[in-house]
Amino acid sequence: MLLRLSNVPRDYAWGSHRLLADLEGRAASSAPEAEVWFGDHPGDPADVAGGGTLDAVTGGGLPYLLKLLAAASPLSIQVHPTIAQARAGWEREAALAMDDPERNYRDDNHKPELIVALSDRFEALSGLRPVADTLRLLEELGPAGAPLRARLTAEGDVLGDTIGWLLTGGAQDDVDALIAAVRAAAASVEGEWAQTLRAVSGIAEAYPADPGVAVALLMNHVVLRRGEGVFLRAGLLHAYLSGLGVEIMAASDNVLRGGLTSKRIDVAELLSVLDTTPTPVRVLHADAAGAYPVDVPDFALRRIELSGAPVEVAVTGPAMVLATVGEVAVSAAHAAAIPVAVGTAVFASEDESSLTLTLTGSGEVFIAEPGR
């Protein structure tokens, strides 16, 4: 069975008025459009053409959630737990209502995720930078960087201790001085750190006085080009800054925030989940089959370009075909061809999972399915 899927964009404040509209060839929206969810997550299950939502078809059992994400301003700095951490947190908070402001865990699952850029430029923060490199960056900030340098040259888990210090409220004067120095340096510094300083200065414009701006100084700044991706594992601190992308993740809503937000930050729980090991950014490219190399059981993602000739694709488990360019259609042995409008998806249910999907037309699609 093949089903057309769509959804109403979620209007988070960081969303774009233009990115999704431009993708779909329509006028800019009057409200921000941040994410379109294609999945059966109870927070916003996809709409099925003809009526109903996808969770009624799947029973809520999809292991992944596929999204279009359109960021005009930075998302919160955040980290996701491992399965063991999520299960422990879910059990620990069992007595709390789901809407309790003290609740951190929305389910008992982990949330690894992959973002692939659809815009020509997609900016993000991914992982913590080696301390020695951050110390060189801080040289560009003059005396304002001294308190941070002192923290980073102490003993112990200096990155975790520094993040805790920044987020617990006692460092605000130092944060304000750092932000002022970043803005000044972004306007004058050239060379190695110029792009990073401009990015952090832009974050400060969106979140003036937020301690997360100082946390961002500790993180790797990455710019993805169209078709490039980055994988965000459990424990990895990250934030998306701007751009349009296809995002796929395990079906979870577990987020521990570390700045750039008006929502609650549980510093102790954040630090218990955070992996403070410096992690270089690995930019991912699709392989010869269009697949992005991500080794998780929850999801797999492929990018397929079509140029008129039919393309046959074997799928494993319930799959989705999301159109991002052109005019394409999908068919299967037990289902006639269904056009897939740009910005919408087609769901191939379990009874088609052992078969091959046939893609026709010209354009680009992304295929989501369970991991292998």
Question: Can you put this structure into words, describing what you see?
Answer:
The chain has 372 residues and is of the alpha+beta class. It contains ten helices and 16 strands. Strands 1, 3, 12, 13, 14, 15 and 16 form a seven-stranded antiparallel beta sheet that branches. Strands 2, 4, 6, 7, 8, 9 and 10 form a seven-stranded antiparallel beta sheet that branches. α7 packs across α8. It is globular and about 65 Å long. The mean pLDDT is 95.
Give a topology summary:
Blueprint lengths: L1 E5 L12 H6 L10 E4 L8 E2 L5 H5 L5 E8 L6 E2 L3 H10 L20 E5 L4 E7 L2 H8 L7 H7 L5 H10 L4 H15 L7 H13 L5 H5 L2 E6 L4 E4 L5 E13 L5 E2 L9 H7 L26 E15 L4 E14 L2 E6 L4 E4 L7 E14 L3
Antiparallel strand pairs: 1-3, 1-15, 2-4, 4-10, 5-11, 6-9, 6-10, 7-8, 7-10, 12-16, 13-14, 13-15, 13-16
Helix pairs in contact: 7-8
* Biggest beta sheet attributes: 7 strands, antiparallel
What is the subunit arrangement here?
Answer: single chain
Give the ordered list of helices and strands: EHEEHEEHEEHHHHHHEEEEHEEEEE
Instruction: Please bin the fraction of helical residues.
Output: 10-25%
Report the span from N to C terminus.
22 Å
Broad shape: globular
How would you summarize what this structure contains?
The chain has 372 residues and is of the alpha+beta class. The chain is built from ten helices and 16 strands.
